[in-house]
Amino acid sequence: MRVYLRPRILIVDEVGYLPLEPLAANLFFQLVSARYEKGSMILTSNKSFGEWGELMGDSVLATAVFDRLLHHCHVINIRGNSYRLKEKIKAGIYSTPSAQVGQNYFGANGSN
């Protein structure tokens, strides 16, 4: 845990790409709690806040995580198609999916 508490800013990318096992969800909560108001975090996710209960397998735990993260954060919600597919769509190699993918980004600043 000390490794993740040491940096002034910790970036966690693609939260929710895979569901978290109960132990992993608990450890993630412990990490967020330990950094709360002590160190900044940047998280990215393609999951909405409402989906995190399912992601973590426990809506109470997800609520506790959000309570700490959202207290001092800035949320940036990016909607639209993936930039990675932009050139393939232009070339006609890939067609746009019917549902747009959203990406949530929020930075929690522990120094506020």
Summarize the structure.
The protein is of the alpha+beta class. The protein has a single domain (2-108), classed as 3-Layer(aba) Sandwich (Rossmann fold), CATH 3.40.50.300.
The largest beta-sheet arranges its strands as 1-2-4-3
Radius of gyration, whole Å: 16 Å
- Secondary structure class reads alpha+beta
> Quick one: CATH class?
Alpha Beta
Give the end-to-end Cα distance, rounded to a whole number of Å.
23 Å
Dominant shape: globular
- Average residue-wise pLDDT: 86
Order of helices and strands: HEHEHHEHE
Number of domains: 1
Task: Please give the structural blueprint.
Blueprint: H1 2-5, E1 9-15, H2 22-35, E2 40-45, H3 52-56, H4 59-71, E3 73-79, H5 86-91, E4 102-108
Parallel strand pairs: 1-2
Antiparallel strand pairs: 2-4, 3-4
Helix pairs in contact: 2-4
Structure write-up:
The longest helix has 14 residues, at 22-35. 38% of the residues lie in helices and 24% in strands. Helix 2 (22-35) runs parallel beside helix 4 (59-71). The protein starts with a helix and ends with a strand. By secondary structure, it is of the alpha+beta class. The mean pLDDT is 86. It has helices spanning 2-5, 22-35, 52-56, 59-71, 86-91, and strands at residues 9-15, 40-45, 73-79, 102-108. It has 5 helices and 4 strands; from the N terminus they run αβαβααβαβ. It has a single domain (2-108), classed as 3-Layer(aba) Sandwich (Rossmann fold), CATH 3.40.50.300. The protein has a 4-stranded mixed sheet with strand order 1-2-4-3. Helix 2 (22-35) links the parallel strand 1 and strand 2.
